Amino acid sequence: MIRTSAMLDRPAPAPAPGNQRIPPFQSFLEEHRTLVYRFLAATVGPDEADDVFQETFLAALRAYPKLKHAGNLKGWILAIASRKAIDAARARSRRPRPVPELPEIADVPGGSPDPLMQGPVWAAVRALPPRQRVALVHRVVLDQPYAELAAAMGISADAARADVYQALRKLREGWNDDEEER
Amino acid sequence: MKKSADAGKRQEPRPGGRTRASGLSIMSGGRLIGPRLQSMQREPFEERSRLASARLAEAAGQAGLRDVAYGYADSPFGPLLVAVTPRGLARVAYPERDEEETLERLAVEISPRILESGSATGQIRRELEEYFEGRRKVFSIGVDLSAVRGFGREVLRQTARIPFGSVATYRDMATRAGSPRATRAAGNALGANPIPIVVPCHRVVRTGGGLGGYTGGVERKVALLELEGVELPGRA
């Protein structure tokens, strides 16, 4: 006699303690893709963001099966994105291109949205040295606490503070220079 | 994925979040740099990142980094979730199945490197649609039963050989799998069939002429057998 109850599927495997099981990659991707894209658009620019996004998540895919637990996946993917953004910025600075003038930022109407981050403020951000740029975007665009941005960048919190400070100082100076030329 | 839109939204910073209170307003020349950078938080990267994610799923496949690809096939029962690996079809899930749970189980049983891909699932989606339209009797795609162990796998392999339009009994399947007395174990294996329709567990019925149960409900078993032209005793 065959029990029809046997037609039910097996129960799902019990979740690991603390629900730290590695989620399906698609779920992980859905949860973090917008944040990572925003971070990359700010750091490497809208034109290169897509390529660096691919590099970031392909690197994550390579390492994914070896992950031991699912704690702080957001910090993990931002750390990968930070490295890729810095690599991309350095690769770009080695390529021959026009001398990066700190762009005019005084003409931008205050507070106007810049959906693709192509305006002068963003050009100024992307003229910053790669590490300072990445630190600034973590702090100001993603609103990350210093401890978290330091962890994502693999530097100390003090170094992170110094990077953000230098980045802001340079942006301010660029701004003042433009103002004084008028 | 339904939950994906919500997951994306969760990432959007709340208005009036910590940024404003963090004192990062960079005053210069009477203008604010900080707020302008922060306005980025509100800009819509949802669409761009969605397109980039779709591109990623294909790039991952080309790089050999996509262990499981899933998609949705149309059927009279509603959209079926189908999942394929490089070895073949690994899952067909009826619509009432919790999608997240299905994917999480695939992550445990096969690999967490799971991505949605319309192109990677194109063949099986087409073949299923042809089957339901009565234009296909044999599925050409291979099946990946690596997540099923031991006797159960052998039962399902034997089940995959039952031709379109014919039936076998649970006892037959136990015998063909090598353990004639393991009828109940054969029934369990068929009830846990991860690839219904394509591994046609609906073609396995009781020895006495009864239909037996079915993963997706007996009415679906009837519908599939009728689609295949099987005469069912006691049914119109």
Principal-axis shape of chain B equals elongated
What is the alpha-carbon Rg of chain B in Å? 24 Å
Unreliable segments of 5+ consecutive residues of chain B? 1-31
Share of residues in helices of chain A = 55-70%
Largest interface pair: A-B, 63 and 73 residues
Distance between the termini of chain A: 93 Å
CATH evolutionary superfamily of the largest domain in chain B: Methylated DNA-protein cysteine methyltransferase domain
Strand content of chain B is 5-15%
Task: Give the full name of the CATH homologous superfamily of chain A.
Answer: PhyR, sigma-like (SL) domain
Supply database-style keywords.
heterodimer; A: 182 residues; mainly alpha; Butyryl-CoA Dehydrogenase, subunit A, domain 3; 7 helices; globular; disordered C terminus; B: 236 residues; alpha/beta; Double Stranded RNA Binding Domain; Arc Repressor Mutant, subunit A; two-stranded antiparallel sheet; 10 helices; elongated
Please give a quick description of this structure.
The complex is a heterodimer of chains A (182) and B (236). With 182 residues, chain A is mostly helical. In chain A, 62% of the residues lie in helices and 0% in strands.
What does this molecule look like?
The complex is a heterodimer of chains A (182) and B (236). Chain A is mainly alpha-helical and 182 residues long. Helix content of chain A is 62%, strand content 0%. Chain A has one domain (24-100, 115-181): Butyryl-CoA Dehydrogenase, subunit A, domain 3. Chain A starts with 24 loop residues before the first helix and ends with a helix. Chain B has two domains: 50-147, Double Stranded RNA Binding Domain (2-Layer Sandwich), CATH 3.30.160; 148-230, Arc Repressor Mutant, subunit A, CATH 1.10.10.10. Helix content of chain B is 39%, strand content 12%. The interface between A and B is large, with 63 and 73 residues.
